[in-house]
Write a structure and sequence with these properties.
The complex is a heterodimer of chains A (about 110) and B (about 850).
Chain A lengths: L7 H13 L5 H12 L5 H13 L3 E8 L7 E7 L1 H19 L8
Antiparallel strand pairs in A: 1-2
Helix pairs in contact in A: 1-2, 1-3, 2-3
Chain B lengths: L6 H10 L2 H18 L4 H15 L16 H18 L1 H29 L11 E10 L2 E5 L6 H8 L3 E7 L3 E7 L2 E10 L3 H4 L4 E3 L11 E5 H8 L2 H4 L3 E4 L3 E9 L12 E4 H7 L12 E6 L5 H8 L15 E8 H4 L5 E2 L2 E2 L3 H30 L4 H10 L3 H38 L10 H27 L3 H6 L6 H37 L9 E5 L8 H8 L5 E7 L9 E2 L2 E3 L10 E6 L3 H5 L3 E4 L12 E5 H7 L8 E4 L2 E9 L14 E5 L7 E6 L4 H15 L8 E2 H7 L2 H35 L1 H9 L4 H35 L10 H28 L2 H5 L3
Parallel strand pairs in B: 5-10, 7-9, 19-24, 21-23
Antiparallel strand pairs in B: 1-2, 1-11, 1-12, 3-11, 4-5, 4-8, 6-9, 7-10, 8-9, 13-14, 15-25, 15-26, 16-25, 17-19, 18-22, 20-23, 21-24, 22-23
Helix pairs in contact in B: 1-3, 2-3, 4-15, 5-13, 5-15, 5-24, 13-16, 13-18, 13-24, 15-16, 18-24, 18-26, 18-27, 19-22, 24-27, 26-27
Classes of the chains: A alpha+beta (about 110), B alpha+beta (about 850).
Chain lengths: ~110, ~850
């Protein structure tokens, strides 16, 4: 598991990339997360997470077309890789497993 | 107005951010900014900047050290290829450029080889650190006279007197003597030397030991050449006897290797010192100087302290000096003697080293001229490469890369030129060696040679490539691509300055060449005061000395012989001085020496001299053995109004003056004619027979004289010298210098002209259209020629103005060595200037005429 480590914020970004599917790029991920978390984030944090995960082969990227509101700069779209999906699944399974072991006692 | 993201932050981001991330990050930042700017522009800006700052972290900062991550070797390969193609493309330009450089380098290389050879002379002696030659300073009549001639016993006594002296040896100048062995009679040249000679100097012995080589009066050491000449081999010669001057049998106690080319000494045999003293008793007298003295000091001796100690050594000998004639001794490093052997006021003041320095400077000049050529041509032709430079710059070449490219090309050119130059040197060295009588070779086997040549080539490449590189790399890429590149006034001035400089150097060399050849011709044609044509010298040897009278009587009967006389010294260089002359009213404190020699009857007539008053020595007057003939200089000294019959005393022999001979030159024209005195030589059996021959009958006369000589003196080969040859020999070094300076001046001018040719080719090409238009509009060819050559004419004129005073100064200094010299007239400068202008015009006229004669239609069609 060590080589497939995934930080908390990275996990969130990865989930968002997977959720947005073909529409995930810096700003869309950022606004998606901001909406879910209900707080404002800095775009640089998203980029840092994306670059790290790209290095770990959890996501891959491609350039999109030129759009007006970016001053002629191309968007960079991210999609989750098979490895990324597996890590996400494992992470989810791990949490689920442990969660399910919580005894059904009332938390009074 | 739309608010834009803060520029500074964006610039900062672009500066530090990895290029592969930049577009994405910039795009996302701008998009975020675009959303937020509507709420609050200032907050959006602040947030933008803050975000940028947050990217300033390891994963996002580009690596600055490897900003040129392209492979440099590939770039160098491309430079090399482009450089090579450029050389091939402009063939004429490259040929001129490379051949100019090659000639310049070859020339300098030869000079440098010569300089190193000169500096290496006498460098091989093992004792060199402590090896000195003794010279003296004589103080008399308010002057100080320096010289290497010393008393005959000095070396031995110095060794005895001072513990600091490790070994010492005397030596004479070399002389020709006849030897006989194995039924062969040959004349060999050699000297007398002290028994420790081979311990002082490191001449390798092939047979014998250095301790016993010259120990006793019958010992002789001979060279390998002499051993082979007489006995066939070194081994056969060793221990054999050889008859010296038909007087004495000498035992060959050592055979030494032939003199190497890097020694200043020349001898094929050495005889023991006591033999010399026996034959020349006069040198035992401490007042007589005539031999050289060398000594080796013990290691660690303080030279100055020793000099202070031994300086007054001659005080011990009464004969050597008196109150008004003081002699002090001094030392000079033996290694330095060869290049520095001229005395001025008792101090050593240069000598051959001046020529060495002069030629070193010329070598520098020639290389400089060649470099300037290259610079000038490259700069001019850089126009043609404007597009290349423009494209390189647009694509992103740094200026430093362009500079290194062009400097690299220059180095490539220089290396090609060096290879060519080396070939030229190979071809030219035999000729050069013949002129300078040396055996200089290219030290091909020496790594230091290649190292220094490589370093020199790179340095030259840097020098000749630096300006063009800096200039070209500064082109404005826009203009360069548009083809509207023009030389700035700075570059034009620089090029003109270079041409002026080049021509100034060339003109200086022309002036120098003219002055040197004029002086040498002046010396060669000088009226010496005697007739040196049809005059021969025969050295008195063997029985000829005693049988001189018979020889003269019989010789006068030979067809073609006019008169015969005799003199104790070679009349071309009489050098004996004596202070022992007394006359009426002489200042008792004066010790100014008179040159003297002893001559026979008919001397004045035979030499073809003129008398001012009085008469020649003649057998008709019985009293001539106490008669003296003096020259006009001597008469000035005596201050006699009517000199004939006035008293004169030489070495206590009272006599009278019987004649005054008009001044004549008896040494080289470097020296003034000094006071001279002749006495009658009756009873002296050495010296030279002088024979005056009728013009055109030399052959008959020589044949007749040889026959008589063979009869009278069968043991000795008949040899003779022509007076004129003897005189020319005095100026051997001048003649070498003349030939060399002619060659170098010619080369310097040739190289300058090559450069000029290249420049003209370029400018006429550039102006083809202009010339065409002018012709169509009716310009005459003469006016066009003026147009094209006027600038050059102005430049050469400026060069003349700059070069003339400099050349005058240098050559005037050179002439100071001569007591009799030419005047440097304005004509020399006018001729040199005209020559320079003429050469320049001829050089450019070919190109210019071609441009003028081309049909203008062709020049318009050139696109």
């Amino acid at each position: 598991m060590a080589q497939h480590s995934l930080g908390e914020f990275e996990e969130l970004v990865l989930l968002m990339v997977a959720a947005l599917h073909d529409e995930a790029y810096g700003v869309s991920i950022l606004s998606g997360l901001e909406k879910e978390l209900g707080k404002s984030l800095n775009v640089s944090a998203v980029h840092v997470a994306l670059k790290r995960m790209e290095d770990k082969d959890f996501v891959k990227s491609r350039f999109g077309g030129i759009t007006e509101d970016r001053g002629g700069r191309r968007k960079k779209y991210y999609v989750i890789t098979a490895l990324g999906k597996r890590v996400l699944d494992e992470q989810f399974a791990l949490r689920n497993n442990i969660y399910n072991r919580i005894p059904k006692i009332s938390f009074g | 107005m739309k608010t834009t993201p803060p520029k500074r932050s964006l610039q900062f981001l672009r500066w530090f951010c990895r290029e592969d991330y930049l577009e994405e990050i910039e795009g996302d930042l701008i998009e975020v900014f675009g959303r937020e700017v509507e709420d609050s522009p200032s907050k959006a800006k602040w947030k933008f900047s803050w975000s940028v700052l947050k990217y300033f972290r390891p994963g996002f900062i580009r690596s600055f050290s490897n900003s040129n991550q392209f492979h440099p070797m590939g770039m160098y390969k491309s430079y090399f290829k482009i450089g090579w193609r450029n050389i091939l493309r402009n063939k004429a330009f490259s040929a001129i450029n490379i051949s100019g450089l090659a000639l310049g380098m070859a020339c300098s290389l030869i000079i440098m080889l010569w300089v190193f050879d000169e500096k290496g002379i006498d460098a091989f002696h093992e004792n060199n650190d402590n090896l000195y030659v003794v010279f003296h300073r004589a103080y008399y009549d308010g002057i100080i006279d320096g010289g290497y001639a010393n008393p005959g016993l000095l070396a031995g006594e110095l060794k005895e007197a001072y513990p600091e002296v490790k070994v010492a040896t005397s030596m004479t100048l070399s002389n020709l003597y006849s030897f006989e062995a194995n039924n062969k009679i040959l004349k060999e040249s050699g000297s007398f030397a002290g028994p420790d000679f081979f311990s002082v100097f490191s001449f390798p012995l092939l047979a014998g030991t250095k301790e016993h080589a010259l120990k006793t009066t019958i010992d002789i050491a001979i060279s390998r050449k002499m051993a082979e000449d007489f006995f066939g081999s070194v081994d056969a010669a060793y221990g054999q006897f050889i008859r010296y001057k038909n007087m004495k049998d000498m035992k060959i106690s050592a055979v030494f290797e032939n003199m190497p080319s890097n020694t200043s000494m020349e001898f094929d045999f050495l005889l023991n010192w006591d033999t010399f003293l026996e034959e020349n008793d006069w040198t035992r007298n401490w007042g007589n100087n005539g031999v050289l003295c060398y000594l080796v000091l013990e290691d660690g001796t303080d030279r100055e302290a020793f000099e202070r100690k031994f300086r007054d050594f001659l005080n011990r000998h009464e004969d050597a000096q008196n109150e008004n004639f003081k002699v002090k001794l001094a030392l000079q490093k033996y290694r330095e003697q060869y290049l520095n052997s001229k005395f001025e006021n008792g101090e050593i003041a240069g000598g051959r080293v001046q020529y060495v320095n002069l030629f070193s400077i010329i070598a520098g000049f020639i290389v400089l001229i060649a470099c300037i050529n290259s610079m000038n041509l490259t700069t001019a032709y850089s126009m043609k490469r404007g597009k290349e430079i423009g494209v390189r710059k647009v694509v992103g070449a740094f200026r430093s890369a362009l500079v290194s490219q062009f400097v690299g090309e220059a180095i490539l050119t220089v290396l090609l030129a060096f290879a060519l130059g080396l070939l030229i040197v190979f071809a030219a060295l035999p000729v050069f060696n013949a002129i300078t009588q040396k055996q200089i070779q290219i030290p091909i086997g020496q790594p230091y040679f290649w190292l220094s040549m490589g370093a020199a080539s790179i340095l030259l490449g840097f020098i000749s490539g630096s300006y063009p590189a800096l200039y070209q790399s500064g082109f404005n890429p826009l203009k360069a691509l548009k083809g509207s590149l023009k030389f700035g006034s700075g570059a034009l001035w620089f090029r003109k300055g270079l041409v002026v400089f080049q021509f100034a150097l060339s003109i200086m060399l022309i002036v120098g060449t003219i002055v040197i050849s004029k002086q040498v011709r002046y010396v060669q044609d000088a009226h010496l005061g005697y007739d040196r044509e049809n005059l021969i010298y025969i050295q008195l040897e063997g029985d000829l000395g005693a049988k001189y009278k018979v020889f003269k009587d019989q010789g006068l009967g030979v067809n073609g012989v006019k008169t015969i006389s005799r003199i104790t010294d070679n009349p071309t260089r009489i050098a004996n001085g004596t202070g022992g002359v007394e006359w009426e009213g002489k200042d008792p404190n004066s010790f100014l020496p008179l040159t003297y020699s002893a001559v026979d009857y008919d001397f004045i007539k035979t030499m073809g001299m003129e008398m001012e008053s009085g008469r020649d020595f003649s057998p008709e007057f019985g009293s001539d053995s106490v008669g003296y003939i003096v020259n006009q200089e001597a008469l000035k000294l005596f201050n006699y109004k009517d000199p004939i019959g006035m008293p004169l005393t030489l070495w206590d022999t009272k006599g009278t003056i019987i004649g005054v001979v008009k001044d004549f030159h008896f040494s080289s024209l470097h020296n003034n004619i000094s006071p001279l005195l002749f006495r009658l030589s009756e009873g002296i059996e050495q010296g030279w027979v002088l024979v005056r021959i009728e013009p055109g009958k030399t052959k008959e006369a020589l044949a007749g004289l040889e026959k008589i000589s063979k009869e009278l003196n069968p043991q000795f080969p008949f040899t003779y010298k022509f007076s004129d040859d003897e005189y020319q020999q005095l100026y051997n070094s001048e003649q070498v210098v003349t030939k060399l300076s002619n060659a170098f001046a010619f080369l310097a001018i040739f190289i300058s002209c090559l450069g000029l040719l290249g420049l003209t080719m370029f400018t006429t090409e550039q102006r083809t259209k202009e010339i065409g238009i002018r012709k169509v509009l009716g310009a005459s060819q003469i006016s066009l020629f003026n147009l094209l050559s006027r600038e050059l004419f102005i430049l050469v004129s400026i060069a003349i103005v700059i070069a003339s005073p400099l050349a005058w100064y240098v050559m005037n200094g050179w002439l100071q060595d001569y007591a009799y010299k030419i005047d440097i007239t304005v004509w020399i400068f006018i001729v040199s200037g005209m020559l320079a202008v003429l050469i320049a015009l001829v050089t450019i006229s070919f190109q210019t005429l071609k441009a003028l004669l081309t049909n203008p239609v062709k020049s318009f069609k050139s696109e």
